[in-house]
Fold this sequence. Notes:
Number of strands: 6
Oligomer: single chain
Largest sheet: 2 strands, parallel
Number of helices: 3
Amino acid sequence: MVAIVVDDPATNAALIERLNLDFTILSDADLATIRAWGVEHEGKDIALPATLVVDRSGKIAWAYVGDNPRYRPVVDTVLEVLTALEHDR
Length: 89
């Protein structure tokens, strides 16, 4: 799992350490990836709350994009997508 956020690498490193996270957080301070994937929150310089599953070829295989950070996809839904991708290999 990888998170992509607009914060700088130092802020990300501090968050990883403080919360003892076991996944990578990448910085997209210029919003290049966020814009390329179509998940920019217009006028706010942040991403919309989004969960993307990217397949081994780099294509977005599944996406959830919301407008409220309180709502995210159910973990089991994401796991089903990942399992299906694994079986399609």
